[in-house]
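name: query_chain
kind: protein
chains: 1
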Amino acid sequence: MGLQLIAALKDVSLSIEKNEYVALMGPSGSGKSTLMNILGCLDTPSSGSYKLNGTEVSEMSDDELAHVRNKEIGFVFQTFNLLPRLTALENVALPLVYAGMSSNDRRIRAEEVMGMVGLADRMKHKPNELSGGQRQRVAIARAVVNNPSIILADEPTGNLDTKTSYEIMDIFAEINKKGNTVILVTHEEDIARHARRVLRLRDGLIETDVKSEPVIKNAL
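structure:
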């Protein structure tokens, strides 16, 4: 039986400017996760071009790609991806270890962002001692600790209840206000409405690309 080549994305032409807040939507198999992985330099397109800050990603060395993923891009996942044996503070500080920051500076910066996401009183807790919403806050703090220019969030509210989801989206709104570009994948319409631009994909193509005003910020 022959192998069939499936194109996850087809003729997608897209430009995302600094400080945009974009939601990627689409049914399963639409290509949104593939697009997210390419934007995050986790996957390389088999054809075409992807320029990040004016640099062609396909021409970057492995070391340059690793630097971009650690310094320029912060990742937030549906399943949090926290290390269970580390405290919340240690999880947040982990990217700073790879960045070569001193132990004292790591602690100061990690404590700062833990306070930013409202978890100053949970720094010494392990992930299994935190609620789902608190774990996602830790994951967001870890994503922003290196001051990346881009935050990529893959279904960041997928495992959370509605109230907690909106609280998490308020944090992303604050991050965007501070100048970060925020790109999130979601299948939930109410979550996508928090963004200022919604891209809908279907069968590897961009179906619609609509800019709008985000919903009113929810009270934390």
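note: The longest strand covers residues 205-211.
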